[in-house]
Design a protein that fits this description.
The complex is a heterodimer of chains A (about 180) and B (about 100). By secondary structure, chain A is mainly alpha-helical. Helices cover about 80% and strands about 0% of the residues of chain A. Chain A is flat and about 65 Å long. The termini of chain A are far apart. Chain B is mainly alpha-helical. Helix content of chain B is about 75%, strand content about 0%. In chain B, helix 1 packs antiparallel against helix 2 and helix 2 runs antiparallel to helix 3. The chains are: A mainly alpha (about 180), B mainly alpha (about 100). Chains A and B meet through helix 1, helix 2, helix 3, helix 6 and helix 7 of A and helix 1, helix 2 and helix 3 of B.
């Protein structure tokens, strides 16, 4: 298991190195998703399955989708089609694919070796996390909900003004 | 857990955080700076979960849940701001946004 931990650590570090050195935003995003998956494997190996699931579902799933949306909004027009063709070349997606394949092989190895079934000893189960979350940390949960509401209102405010400004510019014929 | 070197997890978290900080400092594209911030937040979460696993307490994962909520809010507001910046300056180069008109 130590080897699996080391390999996942190396994958995470390599992917993150490519995130900060990539020249194109989408490449950086691909590598960042691989990095998140590697960190999720680390969580699983450390005996934190709940955190691993959250990392994949919320971080790699939901938050990264927001990034993809914004990148699509920033790159409109006919140039995008040509860029799409450019991305389909293997050189672009080979790196993230290889790193993700390493993680997948590791996952198959972990499940196959049956270690996950014999856990329990050194593992913090989702039930314990839930009991702590809604027990001593209840105030924190409430504060997080207020924070989410504040984020919702702030984002709505910003996008509302942006939409109105774009509309008025389009009427005057100067906008995009 | 059986023989996992948890100190190594802390080292990985530190290296990831350093990489994120380096990304914030060396990149000039607002979107990349934002992505590097995400790397730093993620490294913080890794450090919390590792510490929680060291003492076998659920507190580390509770903190990770809170960090996830903060990251989600930060991404939503931050990306709306990035769209604003692009609308104002027609570029994401932060060096060209250094003049404040307020």
């Amino acid at each position: 298991m130590t080897d699996a931990f080391t390999i996942a650590s190396i994958v995470a570090l390599l992917a993150t190195l490519r995130v900060i050195t990539a020249s194109h935003a989408v490449h950086a995003l691909l590598y960042f998703i691989v990095s998140l998956l590697a960190v999720a494997v680390l969580f699983l190996l450390m005996g934190a399955p709940f955190a691993a699931a959250l990392e994949v579902i919320i971080y790699a799933g939901a938050i990264m989708v927001l990034f993809v949306f914004v990148m699509m909004m920033l790159n409109p027009g006919p140039r995008a089609v040509q860029r799409e063709r450019h991305w389909l070349r293997p050189r672009i997606w080979a790196g993230p694919s290889i790193l993700a394949a390493v993680l997948a092989a590791e996952l198959v190895f972990i499940i196959g070796s049956g270690v996950s079934r014999t856990a329990g000893a050194g593992q913090v189960s989702p039930g314990e996390v839930g009991m702590a979350l809604f027990g001593p940390y209840l105030l924190g949960v409430e504060m997080a909900s207020v924070l989410l509401l504040a984020g919702l209102v702030g984002t709505y405010h910003l996008s509302w003004h942006l939409g109105r400004r774009r509309d008025s510019e389009r009427k005057r014929g100067i906008g995009p | 857990m059986n023989g996992i070197p948890l100190e190594q997890g802390l080292i990985v978290a530190g290296l990831l955080f350093a990489m994120g900080a380096a990304g914030v400092l060396i990149r000039r594209n607002a979107l990349f700076i934002f992505l590097s911030l995400e790397v730093m937040i993620n490294a913080t979460g890794l450090a919390f979960v590792t510490a929680g696993a060291m003492w076998l307490q659920p507190d580390g994962q509770v903190m990770f849940v809170f960090i996830l909520a903060v990251a989600a809010v930060e991404v939503a507001v931050g990306l709306a701001l990035v769209l604003w910046l692009y609308h104002w300056f027609r570029t994401l180069d932060v060096d060209r946004m250094s003049r404040m008109r307020g």
